[in-house]
Design a protein that fits this description.
With about 230 residues, this protein is of the alpha/beta class. The protein is built from eight helices and twelve strands.
Length: about 230
């Protein structure tokens, strides 16, 4: 990494929290560890970390609720959920509350670090993306992460939504393989990453739905085709 990135790590299992904190610090990260959702929210507002790693099942405020509070004012800071819950509806709930990634316990430190670096790199890609791209009746500003329909109010996009839209635009009117999107934006092709991508594809379809000439088509068994 080019600089010391700050991580807000919320984990109520004290031993696990300390082990993960020390492991991340040996890799050059600055880690602020807390043990409940209320403390995590206070530290988030005070320190504005580069990324958040949140346990889902925490006392005082769970990780999903915490993410919802954060997303009311911050769509950019990446959030990774850590949890023993692995049912599909749990995964979908995590992404619908504003999460960018979902890691099932038990996990390896190497896998967590890979996910963290992937999200930080994605965040950097958005901040250096093209500006004012015209998509049908929309204007997309990937640097500011906004989407505007005609002259109406601009809508904020998350960093993952911006990255996904950029990638689809780069392959406009061509088929882009699911595996390429997953590897480039999520870092792997796991079930949880695939579920996450499906959620974000649905979000983009909804946000682009006012222009009927824009379509994100499913190409069965292959991937997606962005048609304008």
């Amino acid at each position: 990494m080019n600089k010391e990135h700050t991580i807000l790590f919320a984990e109520d299992e004290i031993t696990l929290g300390q082990i993960v904190k020390e492991s991340l610090e040996t890799r050059g990260f600055v880690v602020q560890l807390c043990h409940d959702g209320d403390e995590a929210f206070i530290l988030y507002r005070a320190q504005k970390p580069d990324i958040l790693v949140l346990d889902v099942m925490m006392p005082k405020m769970d990780g999903f609720t915490l993410a919802q509070h954060i997303r009311k004012t911050d769509e950019e800071t990446p959030i990774i959920f850590l949890t023993a819950k692995s049912q599909p509806h749990d995964v979908v709930e995590g992404f619908n509350t504003g999460g960018n990634d979902y890691l099932k316990k038990p996990f390896s430190i190497e896998e967590l670090i890979a996910r963290i670096k992937n999200l930080l790199n994605n965040k950097q890609m958005v901040s250096h993306g093209e500006k004012d791209m015209v998509i049908g009746n929309y204007k997309f500003n990937s640097k500011k992460q906004t989407l505007q329909y005609k002259e109406e109010n601009k809508e904020d996009l998350t960093s993952k939504e911006s990255l996904l839209l950029l990638l689809l635009l780069q392959h406009k009117n061509k088929v882009v393989e699911r595996s390429l999107v997953l590897k480039q934006l999520w870092g792997d092709t796991s079930f949880y990453s695939a579920r996450s991508m499906d959620v974000f594809i649905s979000k983009l379809r909804k946000k682009l739905s006012q222009d009927k000439t824009i379509k994100i088509l499913n190409v069965r068994g292959v991937g997606y085709k962005f048609v304008v």
